[in-house]
Amino acid sequence: MQKVTSNVIYKVFVYGTLKSGQPNNNLLSDPRNGKGTFIGSGKTVTKYPLIIGTRYNIPFLLYKPGTGHNVFGEIYEVDQAMLEKLDELEDHPNWYIREIDDIQILNSDLSDSSAQSTMKCWVYFLKTFRPDLLELPTFPCYDSGGDHGLRYCESNNEATPDDL
């Protein structure tokens, strides 16, 4: 696990339940968890399969570069405390693996964003998964209330890697 340093601001790309209007966004917006500031929307430069899996309908970004879609999401600036909260939610490094990836900026409140078309952000990937998960439908964008009919189960969020 990579160690975070205090007083540093990290950029994190979220694609699932942490996005605005989604079931876990309150974690990012609660100042008791640390600093979490929305800075813009973006999409992965590399295509990945974004699936919805387990009996809890959890969105997963499978680490299979070049397969799936350029996935749309949101970019946040977070401090060490918030990054640690996100790691706890995502069970990093036991389940999801947090890695730096290139994110194309679609719109941003950053003053220098016009000079950048991509940004390095932390992204949570599921790296260990059953191959048959690649047969599930993939999505370019996640919404718990989407047409897929697979609403995230907030009260039952204790899925384990054995579920995948």
Structure annotation, total helices: 2
**Cα separation of the termini:** 22 Å
Oligomer: single chain
Q: What Rg is obtained from the alpha carbons, in whole angstroms?
A: 15 Å
Overall shape: globular
Largest sheet: 5 strands, antiparallel
H/E series, N to C? EHEEEEHEE
* Tally of strands: 7
Helix content: under 10%
Average pLDDT: 89
**Share of β-strand residues:** 25-35%
Structural class: mainly beta
Structure description:
The chain has two helices and seven strands, in the order E-H-E-E-E-E-H-E-E. The radius of gyration is 15 Å and the shape is globular. The chain starts with 9 loop residues before the first strand and ends in a 38-residue tail after the last strand. The chain is mostly beta strands. It has a five-stranded antiparallel β-sheet with strand order 1-5-2-6-7. Strands 3-4 form a two-stranded antiparallel ribbon.
Defining traits:
single chain, 164 residues, mainly beta, 5-stranded antiparallel sheet, 2 helices, 10% helix, 31% strand, globular
Summarize the structure.
The protein is mainly β and 164 residues long. It has helices spanning 25-29, 80-90; strands at residues 10-14, 36-44, 50-53, 58-61, 72-78, 96-108, 118-126.
Summarize the SSE layout with pairings.
Layout: E1 10-14, H1 25-29, E2 36-44, E3 50-53, E4 58-61, E5 72-78, H2 80-90, E6 96-108, E7 118-126
Antiparallel strand pairs: 1-5, 2-5, 2-6, 3-4, 6-7
